[in-house]
Design brief:
The protein is of the alpha+beta class and 133 residues long. The protein has three helices and eight strands; from the N terminus they run E-E-E-E-H-E-E-H-E-E-H. It has helices at residues 47-59, 78-83, 117-132; strands spanning 2-8, 11-21, 28-33, 39-44, 63-65, 74-75, 88-93, 96-101.
Length: 133
Amino acid sequence: MYTIKMVKNGKDVGDLEITSFSNGTDPVVLSYNDHNGFCGTVYGPDYFEALSQIREKLSNENISLLCKGSKLNVFPGGLESEQSMGEISYEEVQGNYIPVNIFEESNISEIDPNCSYEMQKDARRKAIRGREV
């Protein structure tokens, strides 16, 4: 189980508890609960995409999660990500790719509240293209 801080308009609004379990058919199943009534279950091909679904639901309430998986410069890829089903992803820092756990805590200053899965995917593509030059 992971506990991730939630912020809205720069202010702490509580914690989100995330539990992973198997239902026998989907690769990743995450259950979440914030003790304020926001709860549910998401399914995905990997942890990163499942977490992104939770982030998208929270963004409708202008809430961001303070975790590495919410950072624009973090995205899965490579063998370590594949073996961990996206739980270990890579943070791009000045052209270097550093493995991070997507549920690991991050500072509010590192999170763009508008950051979406698609923005992260685009940033990853740009970083890869930049390395090919």
